[in-house]
Amino acid sequence: MTARATRPLQSSPSKIPRRDFPTPSAYQEALQHPADAFADEALRRATPRTGPLGLPRPATGSFAAVFPMTTPEGRRLVAKCFLAEAPDQHKRYRAVADHLAEADLPYTVGFDYQPKGIRVNGAAFPLLKMDWAEGAPLNRYAREHLDDPTALEALAQAWAEMLAALEEAGIAHGDLQHGNALVAEGEDEKPKLHLVDYDTTFVPALDGKKSSEVGHRNYQHPDRTEDDFGPHLDRFPGLAVYVALRALARRPGLWDRYDTSENLLFRTADLYDPSASPLFAELDKIDPLADEVRALYAACHRAPEALPSLEDVRSGTSDLGAAPVRGARTPRRSRRPAPSRKGRARWFAPTAALGVALATALGALVSLVAGGVALVLAGAGLSGWAARGYRRQPVVRRRRRLRQEQARYAEQVRALQREEEALRNKRQAVRSRREERRAERLSEVREEALRDRLKHHFIGEVRGVEGLTHRTVVRLRAAGIRTAYEATPEAVDAVSRLGSAAAARLRQWRAALVKQYAPELPEALSPAQTRRLRRYAERRLEQIDEETARTRRKIEAHRAERADAEARAAALPELSPARYLLRLDSSLPSPEDAPPAPTVPPPTGSTPSAADDSPAPTTASASRDSPKQASSAWYDWQRE
What's the pLDDT band for 398 if we cut at 50, 70, 90? Predict the structure, then answer.
């Protein structure tokens, strides 16, 4: 279902102090009772998707747990429960919703950010209510159509059209990846794209802010940091997905060799060091894609904000160099010509000299104070100027990105460890509550047996009780009480104009019936009921054990990714601010310079064979087994 974005609630966001957000299992427990958990009326009446044991089943990511919901009318919704706090979240979603509603594009779905949308253990937390979007994740759709090159080419065309429409509207999704792009069949049998998850979406009203996340590492530019937040955000991942789709349309065998279930052919290692990527070497052999592959190769080294649009790349009007992906082997430390000075490198020395001369002149002609002030102002301006240039250097940006990745993985590990602890406590609770659950089930069985007996005593029988009249029966029936089972003390007390004496006689009448049937009520669970209860507890423990094992695997994967980021950071050459200033007037490359041709081609025979069914490695060991990023000619000048 496609829907337009709707404006979020206009109430002020709650000032939530820094605290631990609920774990996925805590949200799962809360959603067993939607009427108590949600503030939104539609979600209160909705039913969550459940697993084999009848428990809500979420799709859990690094930053949120997503629960599909269905209302009694059949409307499908999504409740996105956050696992961590994000700054200015309410303002961001409101700005995004306003702009998406104005743009009215067919690629977005309606959503409503609610600052106090869900209660867990008595505390309120933010919630994102979203309309359901039909479609399969991008990577699953590609896998299911590997034998249909026409469909993949049509999807690539639809992808390019979507990116052009978003860019024309001043919108960047900010986290284009397989899980956030859903593909459905349109009425004309052409693929139809829907984008979900707007946590990192850029709209003009958010210009000047930082990104709350940096996106999926197997899709995003390797140098992207939280400072990169603008209409250019989708250009790099958009090009990577476009190239991957067109490559699969021509060589579907690439899927078996490079799919990891968390990518679309490309992995972060390919994007960090394309000169050592077997995938890039294979793609460069596909002649119809040569220009696009080389454009992506060059984009890996270009500053994210300096990239051209996909439309420019497709039309051949982009300024990305046609540097070959493969080249002749040259010495690793071969010196390349220093790039010509431009920008800050060209004007730094003259400006510094002018500032010093101006300060000296003012000191001589006016006063030492004026000269000192001029010198301080000139120094501050030049420092800011140089600092901005330093931060934009490729090696500095990449190091900052890698440090952010390390911090993010460390935070995710801590959150997963909290989830693991919560699952251990839940397991212990299931084991310790066996006797309590048996008693609860026995009480339920006795109540069911009592109901089966009392439901045959209709309320008209009370006419034979002294002090109860036909008018009493009429009032009881009007209140929905038609049998002795329904005439509970609470229900009787709620009947208007009944009178205390009549209510007391009704309670006595029902109590006498309960006492009459007490000997017939079961004193223990039957063997079959006991077995069912035991099997439920065993299945619940198995489910918790599976979730715990899955959480542990995620912890190990995040630790491996963090070690990978540390290894990549350690492989980068050092560029201190002092060294940057010393070389600012000579040989520094500009972030906008196109990268040179690689000096180290992929090792001979490194391309996976068609018979190799194992996925390409994604952990730190894979990074250590391949040439490090520092071997790229883009960084050679810093080793001279």
Answer: confident
Q: Distance between CA 257 and CA 278 in Å, rounded?
A: 10
The tokens for 553 are 């695997």
| Burial profile 408-433: b = 16 or more Cβ within 10 angstroms, e = fewer | bbeebbebbebbbebbeebbeebeee
Cα–Cα dist 269/300, whole Å? 11
Helix, strand, coil percent values for the chain (each to nearest 5): 50, 10, 40
pLDDT digits (tens, 9 = 90+) for 100-149: 999 999 999 999 999 999 999 889 999 999 999 889 999 999 999 999 99
Q: With bands split at pLDDT 50, 70 and 90, how would you rate the model's confidence at 61?
A: confident
Sign of the Cα torsion 125, 130, 136, 142 reads negative
Domains contained in the chain, CATH given: 24-131 (3.30.200), 136-315 (1.10.510.10), 431-573 (no CATH)
Work out the number of other CB atoms within 10 angstroms of the CB of residue 560: 16
Distance between CA atoms of residues 523 and 396, nearest Å: 74
In terms of phi and psi (left: phi > 0; alpha: psi -120 to 50; beta: otherwise), the region of 432 is alpha
Contact (CB, 8 A) for 293 and 299: no
Asked if 588 and 393 touch (Cβ cutoff 8 Å), the reply is: yes
List, in sequence order, every residue forming a beta bridge with 136; answer none if it has no partner: 183
Q: What distance in Å separates the CA atoms of residue 550 and residue 429, rounded to the nearest whole number?
A: 20
Radius of gyration of the chain from its Cα atoms, rounded to whole angstroms: 33
Q: Are strands 136-137 and 111-120 parallel, antiparallel or unpaired?
A: unpaired
State residue 227 phi and psi, 5-degree precision.
-75, -20
Distance CA 237, CA 592 (A): 18
Mean pLDDT, rounded, for 525-537: 85
φ/ψ of residue 165, rounded to 5? -65, -40
Helix (H) or strand (E) holding 588: none
pLDDT, position 324: 52
Structure tokens at 319: 């300024």
List the alpha helices (DSSP H) in 392-460: 394-432, 434-454
Sequence-ordered list of residues with C-beta below 8 angstroms from that of 113, at least 6 positions apart, any chain: 8, 9, 89, 90, 93, 94, 97, 126, 127, 128, 129
State the chain's maximal CA–CA distance in angstroms: 118
CB 69 within 8 A of CB 48: yes
Q: How would DSSP label each residue in 507-568?
A: HHHHHHHHHHHGGGS-SS--HHHHHHHHHHHHHHHHHHHHHHHHHHHHHHHHHHHHHHHHHH
